[in-house]
Design goal:
The complex is a heterodimer of chains A (240) and B (122). By secondary structure, chain A is an all-alpha fold. Chain A has a single domain, classed as Up-down Bundle (Four Helix Bundle (Hemerythrin (Met), subunit A)), CATH 1.20.120.80. Chain A has a two-stranded antiparallel sheet with strand order 1-2. The longest helix of chain A is centred in the last third of the chain and has 33 residues. The radius of gyration of chain A is 22 Å and the shape is globular. Chain B is mostly helical. Chain B has 2 domains: 82 residues; 31 residues. In chain B, helix 2 runs antiparallel to helix 3. The radius of gyration of chain B is 23 Å and the shape is flat. At the A-B interface, helix 1, helix 2, helix 4 and helix 8 of A face helix 1, helix 2, helix 3, helix 4 and helix 5 of B.
């Protein structure tokens, strides 16, 4: 009997790499993502769908900005901060960007220490990441308050095109929600790591699956994605 | 035949994933990328601070944006170490967005043209 099962190509080490590998992985009755667990693959697929959501937001922003007859408010002035007698354009946004990048760095440390089974450092790094994320959300709340007090509303504003407010609240609001949800999950994960759930492989409360340090990496994927979205928002909404 | 396939896949999911899917890399590369992200963000901010305008501004914004996004996806999200089947599955579909951008740019130009013609009384 001929053996048609892909037995000799089970591990990803002895599978062809590059384009041949791509075709081989997708082309027969087998799982496509060879060395990736299902939880990680599903997180990636979720992130892909989220990419489309944010893309559509930015796309609607582009369309409204290009098609309005009224001039678009100058973000450099709208988001400037007065400190002393100097006017810093976009200062708060720049600080928010640095806070988020710092949190991405601490997240990557958490993933790394997780795989080294360093329970304490992983928990500390997760906590720092959560605190930086909370700082970001706090600064965003400040930014919203400032803009609302200056008369920016979803249906109009004193600075220019009326679409500015709606687009601003929708895009930054959705991003801020993502950060807030991330902070909650980071805190939950901090507690789990601190208790040693991933060392003892304690079963999860909702999923009843064994916890592993890979969960930290998957959390990291989500967190880096949030940072990634901010890179695009920063470029297109604040700098353009 | 089906049975042997099932056995094979069970065996696969039980043993190899936890070992293989492990993305553990030296800390050094993360620190280098982290540093670069700070530098690139500072550069992005400098575009606005120095009030560079016009095509140079847009080119620089897009350049720094793409490099930052690339570093995050490639290193922080480990895509450069994943197999192509996963990388392409997540990196290729967003190309459709670029097509959509092109379509909507044409559409928006048309909209603003008609607004100027008809909403200003000719």
């Amino acid at each position: 009997m001929t053996d048609t099962s892909p037995a000799k190509i089970t591990t990803s080490e002895n599978r062809p790499k590059g384009l041949t590998g791509l075709v081989e992985d997708w082309s027969s009755d087998q799982r496509a993502f060879k060395n990736v667990s299902w939880r990680k693959a599903m997180m990636w697929i979720f992130l892909l769908s989220d990419t489309f959501i944010f893309s559509i937001f930015l796309l609607s922003y582009m369309t409204s900005r290009m098609s309005t007859k009224v001039g678009w408010p100058n973000a450099s002035e709208v988001f400037s901060l007065h400190i002393g007698h100097t006017n810093f354009p976009l200062l708060l946004i720049a600080i928010m960007t640095f806070v988020l990048i710092s949190s991405s760095g601490t997240m990557v440390m958490a993933v790394n220490y997780g795989y080294r089974k360093d329970r304490k450092l992983t928990a500390i790094m997760l906590l720092v990441t959560a605190l930086l994320g909370a700082t970001f959300v706090g600064m965003q709340a400040f930014e919203w308050t400032k803009l609302i007090s200056e008369g920016v509303r979803p249906w109009g504003n004193p600075m220019g095109a009326p679409q500015f407010g709606g687009i601003f609240f929708m895009i930054t609001g959705f991003h801020g929600t993502h950060v807030s949800i991330g902070v909650i999950f980071l805190l939950v994960m901090t507690v789990k790591v601190w208790r040693g759930d991933y060392d003892k492989q304690t079963k999860g409360y909702f999923t009843s699956r064994k916890g592993e340090y890979e969960c930290v990496e998957i959390m990291g994927l989500y967190w880096h994605f949030v940072d990634l979205v901010w890179v695009f928002i920063f470029a297109f909404f604040y700098l353009w | 035949m089906a049975g042997s396939n099932n056995n094979h896949s069970d065996q696969y999911s039980a043993t190899e994933i936890s070992v293989e899917g492990h993305q553990e890399h030296p800390l050094k590369i993360y620190f280098i990328v982290w540093g670069w992200l700070f530098v690139l963000s500072a550069c992005s901010y400098m575009i606005d601070f120095m009030a560079i305008q016009g095509y140079l501004r847009w080119t620089l914004i897009l350049f720094f944006m793409v490099v930052k996004a690339g570093l995050i996806v490639a290193v922080f999200m480990h895509i450069m170490w994943e197999r192509l089947s996963l990388s392409y599955a997540v990196l290729l579909p967003p190309i459709a967005v670029l097509v959509f951008v092109a379509i909507m740019a044409v559409e928006a130009n048309y909209t603003v043209l008609t607004r100027f013609i008809f909403l200003d009384g000719g």
